[in-house]
Amino acid sequence: MRVFALILIVWLCQACATELSVGKVSSPNNQLHALVQLTKSGELSYSVNNKTKPLILPSHLGFTLQKQAPLEQFEMLSANVKSYKKQWQVPWGERKNIRNEYNELFVSLKDLRSERKMNLRLRAYDDGVAFRFEFPQQKALNEFVIMDEKTDFNLAENATSWWIEADYDSYEKLYKQTQVAEIKQVQTPFTVRNQDGTLLSIHEAALTDYASMTLKHKTGSQLTAELVPWQDGSKVKAKVPFRTPWRTVQIANDAKSLVASDLLLNLNEPSKLTDTSWIKPMKYIGIWWGIHLGVHTWKEGERHGATTERAMQYIDFAKQHNVQGVLFEGWNKGWEQWGTREAYLVPSDDFDLEKVANYAKQQGVAIIGHNETGGNIAAYESHVEDIFSIYSKLGINTVKTGYVAEQGFSNGEHHQGQFGVNHYRKIVELAAKYKIMLNAHEPIKDTGIRRTWPNMMTREGARGGEYNAWSEGNSADYTMTLPFTRLLAGPMDYTPGIFDVDFSRFDGQRYDWQGQEQKAGYRVHTTLARQLANMVVLYSPLQMAADMIENYQGHPAFKFIEALDVDYDDTKIIDAEVAEHITVARRANQRWFIGSATNKDAREVSFKLDFLTANTQYQATIYQDAKDTDWQDNPEAYQVVTQMVDHETTLHLTLAAAGGAAIIIEPLND
Ligand code: NOJ
Ligand code: CA
Question: Which of 113, 401, 513, 660 has the smallest count of CB within 10 Å of its CB?
């Protein structure tokens, strides 16, 4: 007790000679404590403790503005704390019910030298803390331009961290693991692990009409927000009343709880859509992987992928195998003339759009349309309503968008700046108007917007499976890092489920985008069983079984994908370690789907099925690596084991290096 009191005094007095506490707030379970302080000269800071242990040391807050004095010295006008507790339901997702419970400190501040006002709203949840700045309606501030957001994150430890480098246009990078002190500038979610195993992940929620935040290294383990700029160097153009996104720090004692966090969804606004009956998660296949492999083409010609005939075959396969949607890429004229109206609406000569759309409708299979903008935002925005209204008449209720333009949009703005953020949102809102679900590639990062716009289903926003087709690809370690980094932000259209993981049989028949022969030796870097596990582990409400149907036809392992549900009532993280392994169980009605996946290391995994209903017999069908599976030399070997289980059973799995297991557990009387 004395030690506790002493630590508390040391913490409160860290700067008590110069700092005045303006308010404190604790998480509902009283584990996390956040403190907001002002120095005598008006500098604002916050800090966060886990019980008595500092996680974030006092960190500076403020803004520099264009053509006016910075907002960096404040006096407090008022401060109050309130509590909130409610449960709410998502229309689709990893779990139906979400608990939203927090304590909130609201501080009203005034600039020391002017009448300009700013509020700080800081919330403490059991799974992290979050804060945002608000600029209320006022006479002293109207339109303003943020040149810099001076939010710091002074991490208490030079922790182990997992990150991708920040550029302002692409998230398609491999993760690195270093100490915090070694980073330069990174994207969020940025995840760190302290010596005692505590995990923190810095990100943002409700990124609306603002520039995306990256994190820049200052010194030691101190980081600072670096917003993605406009071409003119400014960061955010604003007008009161205005508020920033939430700056979020998910905090957990272990990796399991980090992955289970609902912090970001809780920080977003409730749904703007009253009728969500048209929004339905689904599995899909597509004329897609063959094009990336380079055996088919987007463009019309001898090897054209999206022909009427192939489209009909895909629709038939989908119908026969409980797959609800089919994506067609490159069915349009002028594929290379990205952005033109033609490229979105005029089918190529060998693709009869109406015939395909009618056939899909007849068969009860959804078509996923594809809009590759090539980053030409002005053109896309000018055609998009036309496109969506024509698509919706054809029964195309889902659109995959694309923004292939590494160096920014064609108007020179960045993907991740305020301009881009507003564009991506505009498309979500227009899609909702036409009852269209969205899957965005080369998107803005996810910040939990699906709560407000439940038609924003999934997105890429990381290096997806496509890289395996035409580059050194994605290692098992990389995909095992995703659940603890990128996926903390929300669903990802990774495009898993490749059965022909070693596609060397196509060597010599594969061509790149420019028609040059593709290098031999590229492949998928996991076992087949791990590809099945990824279908569960890498959550996406539009989950693609990405391989070509000829590789699925008659394949016994496809039974798992056929049975898989992608909309869940509940999700339990059974077991997890960052970048090493994860086992996830997801329930849809009475059936559970479990995905267990490992990195480059083979591993034994055991867990009790105590989440099953007591006194009920279930059948477990386990798709797993076989004894002789070897991701390099024998990756496609797998075995299927069936076993009776109940809530007292402990399952033992042997995962090969870069391997996995995928399990269906269903009640016997079902
Ligand atoms: C990149 C996307 O990630 C991919 O899925 C798509 O096929 C291509 N762009 C072409 O639009
Ligand atoms: Ca991509």
Answer: 113
Q: How far is the CA of 5 from the centre of ligand 1 (A)?
A: 57
Q: Which residues pair with 667 in a beta bridge?
A: 618
Helices (H), 120-196: none
> With the CA atoms of 335, 337, 339 and 342 taken in that order, what torsion angle do they form, in degrees rounded to the nearest 10?
-70
- pLDDT of 12 over the 70 cut: no
* pLDDT at 337 (0 to 100): 81
From the CA of 442, the nearest ligand is 2
Is 354 annotated in the active site?
no
For atom 2 of ligand 1, the residue with the nearest CA is: 441
Per-residue pLDDT tens over the stretch 531-550: 999 999 999 999 999 999 99
Domains of the chain with bracketed CATH = 2-266 (2.70.98.10), 282-461 (3.20.20.70), 512-670 (3.20.20.70)
For helices 418-433 and 377-394, what crossing angle results, to 10°? 20
Cα separation of 189 and 203, whole Å?
Answer: 5
The residue annotated as part of the active site, out of 466, 472, 517, 666, is 466
Cis preceding-peptide flag for 189 (omega within 30 of 0):
yes
CA-CA distance, 654 to 641, in Å (whole number)? 12
Residue nearest to atom 7 of ligand 1 (CA): 288
Residue 255 has pLDDT above 80, yes or no: yes
Helices (H), 482-630: 528-537, 558-563
Coil/strand/helix, residue 642: strand
What DSSP assignment string belongs to 281-293? -EEEEEETHHHHH
Type of residue at 253: N
User: 3-state DSSP call for residue 578?
Assistant: coil
Residue 252's DSSP bridge partners are 199
DSSP 521-543: T---SS-HHHHHHHHHHS--SEE
Nearest to 474 by CA among 335, 600, 642: 600
* Degrees, nearest 5: CA angle 49-54-60: 85
* Calpha distance 502→636 (Å, rounded): 8
Neighbouring C-alpha atoms within 13 Å toward the C-beta of 384: 25
Alpha-carbon span 625 to 527, nearest angstrom:
7
Q: How many angstroms is it from 36 CA to the middle of ligand 2?
A: 41
Q: How far is CA 492 from CA 443, 464, 489, 531, in A?
A: 11, 9, 9, 15
Nearest ligand 1 atom, CA 402? 11
Counting ligand 1 atoms within 8 A of each CB, the residue from 291, 372, 492, 548 with the most, and so the one to mutate, is 372
Asked if residue 518 lies in contact with residue 646, where contact means CB atoms within 8 angstroms, the answer is no
Q: How far apart are CA 581 and CA 444, in angstroms?
A: 27
Considering every ligand atom shown, identify the ligand nearest to the alpha carbon of residue 461 and give its number. 2
Mean pLDDT for the stretch of residues 551-575 = 98
Looking at residue 342, its pLDDT comes to 85
Ranges of beta strands (E only) in 112-158 are 117-125, 128-135, 143-149, 152-155
